[in-house]
Amino acid sequence: MSDQQNSNAVKTAQTTFAILEELKQRNEATVTELTDAFDLSKSSIHNYLSTLEREGYVVKEDNTYRVGLRLLDLGGHALHTERIYDVAKDEVTALAEETGELANLLVEEHGRGTYLYRAHGDDAVKTDSYIGQRVYLHNTALGNAILAHLPRARVTEIIDRHGLPATTENTITDRDELFARLDRIREEKVAFDDEARVKGLRCVAVPIVNNNATVEGAISVSGPTSRFQGQRFREDLPATLKSVANVIELNITYT
């Protein structure tokens, strides 16, 4: 394959994935809407969509297209290749039941966080997050807990690649300020999120670190500011999380 052919193949693959991402963001879209979004001809967009539909990755309903369930098959496979998912999910479920709140498991991949598992306690609030969602690491307690236990050079790479965009006025967008926070988290082994990503929501997270001192992910509990305050927010929930993390770390080591 010539360099030009290789370049064209790469561009085609990139466009294919970009179309899938656009469909995810829009929930559904027409050929015309995608043509406008990508500045491609209608025939080109139609060819991409026809191929994706034929392979089961998109579904056509009337004149609109949406993401197909074949991607769920791939996602389910990817989920079960993560060892921490099988090891931690029962503990995260128990954490949600014990606290009555929303409990989460997050891992880092390609500099972003991905929710692997979530469990709802009796009083858990509803949020916009879902299993498989990719999020920035700098604006969540989960992400901060992971970043604090990565090598500084790796954290710098992540910031250089993804930046520090703000989602609320409480989001840290200054590199030096973030590094100072990560130093504190590394020392205290707990991270707090005070409405840094979602207004009205606080979160407490701790890292999951294996016996080689490598961070595997993080677990957290999230809830409304009205319940996440005082001793419960700063002492009780961190203690509970650290206890659960210890169990998960032992299970990782001896499973």
Automatic annotation (TrEMBL):
SMART domains: HTH_ARSR (SM00418), HTH_ICLR (SM00346). Residues 10-69 form the HTH iclR-type domain. The keyword Transferase does not apply. SUPFAM superfamilies: GAF domain-like, Winged helix' DNA-binding domain. Residues 70-254 form the IclR-ED domain. Keywords: DNA-binding, Plasmid, Transcription, Transcription regulation. GO terms for molecular function: DNA binding; DNA-binding transcription factor activity. It holds the Pfam family HTH_IclR. It comes from the Archaea. GO terms for biological process: negative regulation of DNA-templated transcription. The keyword Transcription applies. InterPro entries: ArsR-like_HTH (IPR011991), GAF-like_dom_sf (IPR029016), HTH_ArsR_DNA-bd_dom (IPR001845), HTH_MetabolicPath_Reg (IPR050707), Tscrpt_reg_IclR_C (IPR014757), Tscrpt_reg_IclR_N (IPR005471), WH-like_DNA-bd_sf (IPR036388), WH_DNA-bd_sf (IPR036390). This is IclR family transcriptional regulator.
